[in-house]
Amino acid sequence: MLRVRKRNSLMRTREDVVFDTFNIMFMILLSVIMLYPFINQIALSLNAATDSVKGGIYLWPREFTWRNYEYVFSQASIIQAIFVSVARTVVGTGVGLLCTAMVAYAIAQEKFVFKKSVTIIFIMTMYFNGGLIPGYLLMRDLHLIGTFWVYILPGLISAFNLIIMRSFIEGLPKSLFEQARIDGAGDFRVFFQIVLPLSLPVLATVALFVAVGQWNQWFDVFLYNSSNENLTTLQYELMKILQNTATSNGDWNTAQASGERAVQAVTPKSIQATMTIVASLPIICVYPFLQKYFVKGMTLGAVK
Amino acid sequence: MVKRKSLVLFLSLMLVLSVVTACTNKESAGQEEGEVFTYKFFNASSTGKDVNTADTKIGKMFEEATGVNFDIEHIVGDSNQKIGTMIASGEYPELLNAQNATNDVIDAGGFVPLNDLIEEHAPNLRKLYDPIWEKMKLEDGNIYILPSGVSNGYIKPPNVGQSAFWIKREALKEQGYPHPKTIDEFFEIVETYAKAHPKTDGADTIPYTLLQYDWHVGQLFDPPAFLSGEQEGIMVDDETLEVSVHHNQDITKRWLKILNEVNAKGLFDREAFTQNFDEYLAKISSGRVVGWFGPRWESGTALDTLELDDDPYNDYMGFPIVFEEGIKDQYLNPESTVTSPGMGLTSGTSEEDQVRIIKFLDHMAKVDSQKLITWGIEGETYEVNEEGRYYRTQEQIDLVNKEEFRDEFGFKALGWYWPIMSGTFDDGNSVDPAVQPEVAQLAYDEVDKEFLEAYNIETFTDLFTEPDPAPWFPFWDAVIETGSEAQLYDQQSRDLIKRSYPDIILADPSDFDAEWDKFKGEFDKLPYEAYEDVIEASVKKEAELMGK
Amino acid sequence: MQAQTKVKSHTSPIVQLNQEKGMKSFIKKCRSQKALLLMTLPFVIWVFIFKYFPVWGWSMAFQDFKPARSFSEQEWVGFKHFIFLFTDDRFLGVLRNTLAQSIINLVLGFVTAIGLALLINELTNLKFKKVVQTISYLPHFLSWVVAAALVSSVLSIDGIVNEILMGLNIIDKEILWLGKGEYFWGILGASEVWKNVGWNTIIYLAAISMIDQEQYEAAKIDGASRLQRIRYITLPGMKQVIVILLIMNIGYIIEAGFEAQYLLGNGQNIEFSENIDVFVINYGISMFNFSLATAAGVFKTVISLIFLMAANSFSKKMGQGGLY
Description:
A: 16 helices; 69% helix; disordered N terminus; disordered C terminus; B: alpha/beta; 5-stranded mixed sheet
């Protein structure tokens, strides 16, 4: 018996080694391709703007300078904007996650009377849109314009995330639920004490999706809160700075008429690179943070 | 797990509370602080830093004189969408520049008529707009918009700011400072230099390139018109004022044939039609391009970079090229005023506020204020000599070109987009300091002077013929109705040209005629006559108003 | 359990009795599921307010909408905008581009994301695995403006792709990739994969992590090879997620995105790059023509729902369960 097993391990090992080697080489190549653009953006953001115009910056800056970052951070509204961005990300994610999970749980229950209808009601929302103007008028009538909640309420539950969560919950072993019900637990208890703890991987996933969505949003700021300095987000402020440095504003009429010859110390390309780094760095760091929730496999024993 | 979750929830609640309380403290618009009134100005025509005018030196001076200041907000993103929401909700900031949506705001009743307000409360404003007062009136006799740049006397700019055919200075120097007048001469110079220098700084030399990306279509569309002596990208008969588009005419065929031949010789940039704006700028600023056509402001970023570097010979010099000798070049812009877009006073503003705002604008319209926002403060940003001519010392030039200074002083916040003159002041000084000969002369360096001497000129525009007056200039100032055939033509012709010209230019010379005929056939199907009619009506009307 | 009642006008007494019982048991069920109702009702209300109510805006598609006028003053034009869309010479081409781009992106997207997830999962060194995962989704955070500029420069005449091909003597003259329409779909597909594959693996990795470890142990003991383990344990464990995502994305087939196509498109490849959204941008918003944009949106929704329902039914017939 032992000898057979040993031979098996030997055979597996050789195949494994080949597989693993190729895998690792592939991953390294992949990492290079994925990482390069970012390194390039970092290099551009640290390079003197007037020099970057000439092109040819690849992995490191040719004329090192902090000027681009100085420029971006000297805009007074940036600090407040970061604050707001963090707030909406945290609140939006927390609240949205909870609400989505609740509905997902409910529609995952076979016995639920309205299971099918609620599911369909939500799924349909993925594929239609009332339009910009009706949306704006609705926010106005609900007095959400100029408030913080216009960032949270309209996007509370995404049908896509809802379905993902439902699938995971449906995949949980039914025996657990039966056990709990027999013990007399109601739906709320089952939800909070059994389903949530077991769904950490999907909760982490959806949390990531929602968080990234919240963090990157600028269009709603543009529509609803552009005049309110205290409620603009980082992305919006960065957008502003970027457009501010563009010498012509997409309307050659005005450019021609005003004939402005601003002497630029920063250019759109450099600001864009700086923007990319400032805007993405924080959110990129969220995933590694969440990775611990993607624990490989759950043993039933822990739950019992 | 649950504990951590509640901690997170608690923290976020705190965050939310602090944010919410912070934002309820600040209210906007029309608020009083003692005797100072703050209003809002939304500018959809320009991006820029959002400031309050009183935070600038000039703005503070205006506030002290009028008791009014403005929160300026610039557009971020698509202006049509943003203005669309304003119109739909009926809520506007007090002052608004609505860019392309100006007519829609007027239709919606978003702007109030200004005639009476100005006549009663703003004599200086009335005087400033006197040259174009009738032109500003719409069909219903009302004036809603105050445009910027009201021309008061023509002044010839010393340097080329608009369109020209540009050649690398080194090429000119090498060939003994030739003076090209025709398009053939232009390409000869380019070809000679390109053959002698197949590489520049290690990379391929690009004899001729053009930009055509996104809305940057001028370099592709306009040359035939300019080469024929037109003042802009459309044909206007001097006598009859008849207007016609040039894209389907022989002059365009001639221009494309020239480019086709240039391409056949291998002198045309293969990437011209696939490059984006940044790539184009990189090419220009690398010094690899020998010749190109376009307005200076479009490639400004790249050209400024070239001026700042160590090599003075990789800059470009502009020439007013025409098809053949005898055609009068008209590259320089004539005296003109663009009437739209501009700023307007919006409905919903109370009458007292309207009066206060008009008085502020009136104060700005005074000649002294105009000098403040263009030249600045005497002794600080400019000097006056015994003859009353304004000039700037080198230090002042350097100071004024710094972006931080422009922001602080208020040049940026209170310049273009407000009621402002253009051309000359009554005392003969130029409104725009950059165009004042005394200031421009100082900016010429050794190499500039070398070229000026070689061509026997005092300023670079001496090579260009003075423009004939054209009261309707620019043609694109005409109002084109949304959804009309003319507007459709605008978009469709753009699509068709962008699609077809590459095929024509890059084709084998033997296929040229076939490709051109194909394009012309399709172009003729477009509603270009409707477009011509609209422009012609506008041109004739302007001419009439200005008493030509 | 009672079957759902169907209301009929003429029923026999026995059926009527069953109906009453049906109604009663329905109410009884509702009462017993109070918690579930509480969990969903507020949000159904939310969805009606925020998602369904604004659909009144679809009326814009049938008007010559001018924001200036109030609703009652709008000019009704029936199907004018739809006709404009459908009869434009280019519409068929635009539609073809949209569908082709979507299908290519869909297939590529799925295959690469699943494949990469499997490979990442097989990495043994945990630290290396974490690092690779994080790096792989970095491009997702680049805006398309930056990404398109990168793609454009990589494909330019002196860009890396041409350099390598020339260096390996595969071609003798540089290829102007973005100048040939036929290459556009491939370029778009490759760019989309590069940008999103890492991000798309996240959900698959989450699914994989829910698979019971014991299964792997058992399989190893039985002598299953690496590939066999992937085939018989990992993939089936992901099956449900794959099916769900596939159905939802098929519903999105008409939504090929527009930024990449707009930024990488130019006069020479426009016959292959212009899709519905780019077309609408050119003729819609920039001309302040909300009506046209809305009409296109309505059209897209109809197509989406058709595809969604077809995919869902198909999936159920194949025994893989459906979305609903």
